[in-house]
Design a protein that fits this description.
two-stranded antiparallel ribbon; 12 helices
């Protein structure tokens, strides 16, 4: 009974900490994070031009998370976690021990995001039986030209086969797996949204139409869709900025940190190149890092000077009126 109360109590403490900190401008922290993102690898098979990993702009080393490291910190966090995203940068299914990570997340809702190129019949069967809570599949076009305009190096038919494979496997094994098809809406694919909606419905998958993050300052005109609700940015003639007014608070710093493949703890998923390392799980426990001086100082900065923090300048946390 007591163990069953730990997660909901911790979630309440996280919420109370965030609200009290936001209201006072001072850092208050009780409990542990109720959710976390974990990077199994930052390697990828594609070359998406507005992705830190695929574009080659990422400066940090590439690699794969050690399963022993994962076991250590997930054991510490498991009593508190409601959700774990087993992805950050890169393609998680490239990890040679991919399924071992899902197995070790029993009792936590686990989510994977994939570009869909490794959903063979065999892998789809394993995923359907694995206990994974949700599988997000990126599909940014329905024909090769549209799809590969962003998913450089990808094959749309391979992804479509993968969607069919996982849909079939879920039915075959009577799996509770949720499937979500995700579209980064851009100038090249917005005309196909109606068709993609039908594909998702036929596959009994949910659909998320997501505005596209642009990291190359000279690329806005190439990607911004005509439909305003899918634009994260405002401006014209090469002078663009994110629509987010950046309020002096950010729930991510109280709710969902990120761990890179090599054990670095980051404040959020917008720190793609690990510029703000809060600590190293190879040297400290997660609790020591979460409650540590460096993390507290970073929270304090965002309560007063969020707009001056570089990783926040492309952040959608708190943004309204845009599908993010």
């Amino acid at each position: 009974m007591i163990n069953g109360l730990v997660k909901p109590l911790n979630l309440l403490l996280a919420g109370y900490s965030y609200l009290k900190s936001s209201a006072s401008g001072q850092v208050y922290l009780y409990g542990m994070p109720p959710a976390i993102g974990i990077e199994l690898t930052n390697n990828c098979n594609l070359r998406c031009p507005e992705c830190a990993s695929g574009s080659g702009l990422m400066k940090r080393a590439r690699g794969f998370m050690n399963i022993d490291l994962f076991e250590r910190f997930i054991a510490e966090l498991k009593p508190y976690l409601w959700n774990v995203n087993l992805y950050f940068q890169g393609e998680s299914l490239l990890h040679p021990e991919f399924f071992s990570f899902i197995t070790r997340c029993k009792s936590i809702r686990s989510v994977i995001s994939t570009n869909g190129h490794f959903l063979s019949e065999e892998n789809s069967g394993k995923i359907a039986r694995s206990g994974l809570g949700k599988l997000i599949i990126s599909l940014d076009g329905l024909d090769q030209d549209t799809y590969s305009s962003y998913r450089a190096g990808g094959n749309v038919e391979t992804v479509m086969d993968g969607i069919r494979n996982i849909t079939s496997a879920r039915k075959r094994y009577n799996s509770s797996l949720k499937i979500e098809i995700q579209v980064l809406v851009n100038r090249n694919n917005e005309h196909q949204i109606a068709e993609i909606k039908k594909l998702a419905a036929d596959s009994r998958a949910s659909l998320r139409l997501k505005s596209m993050q642009i990291i190359n300052k000279n690329s806005f005109e190439s990607w911004l869709p005509g439909n305003e609700k899918f634009r994260r940015y405002t401006g014209a003639n090469g002078d663009y900025q994110i629509k987010n007014p950046l309020p002096k608070r950010c729930a991510r710093l109280w709710f969902n940190p990120v761990v890179t493949w090599d054990g670095k703890v980051l404040p959020c998923c917008f720190d793609k190149d690990a510029e703000h390392i809060m600590g190293d799980l190879n040297q400290e426990s997660f609790r020591e890092i979460w409650n540590g001086t460096k993390y507290r100082l970073f929270r304090r900065i965002l309560l007063s000077e969020r707009a001056s923090t570089e990783i926040c300048k492309n952040c959608t946390s708190g943004m309204k009126g845009v599908l993010v």
